[in-house]
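User: Here's a protein and a ligand (zinc ion). What would the complex look like?
Assistant: Let me lay out the input and then the predicted complex.
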Amino acid sequence: MKKIQISPSILSADFSQLGNEIKRLEEGGADLIHVDVMDGHFVPNLTIGPPVIKALKKNCSIKFDVHLMISPVHKYIDAYADAGADIITFHPEATDDLSASIKKIKDLGKKVGVSLNPETKVSVIKDYLDQIDLILVMSVNPGFGGQKFMPEVLEKIKELRNIQKEKNVDFDIEIDGGINFENSKIAIEAGANILVSGTTIFKSNNGDIKKNIDLLKSK
Ligand code: DX5
Ligand code: ZN
């Protein structure tokens, strides 16, 4: 059984205090920092890019789990690798050549993730599972924090874990969107081993980050 990791999404952080918020996550026991990059084109929201990531990474020892909700994505991969992303996750709909984008991230020495929107089928990436380090299963439609969890995507996680056994390949499954204290357990039971959470970690229990991370981790 893989160790359960928590990757807090800074989309729900106080953007006027991002450096301090990252420090609070580090002190609160975050395993990864989930950075939601949005371009206002692939999703109807615009957040941060390479310069901000570079600045934040300077003062943080935790790995940056960068979720690229941008299209086209291929030509920007170098910039996010240079900025300090440790895991670079993109959406298959955002590249003309899935294999080439996967290879580019790996050639840069980064872990590669591919993200499946709620309506995107596992079949889209089935032939690449031996090249991918992480599959990011969206449990909301991408673009905003604070949305309602979509339990139907749990079937996708179970399907991925079955394929993993059949093909004897190894990858992390990260679930992202609407994760809270009620549904974190069913997400883990379905087979997710990395939980992304923004609203629950930053807003619950008066923003007690350590308590919220511990609660999400406990099965
Ligand atoms: C949505 C992002 C998610 C989101 C998670 O497009 O990819 O990472 O910020 O935030 P919550 O946990 O509030 O749903
Ligand atoms: Zn995300």
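Summary: Residues 154-167 form the longest helix (14 residues).
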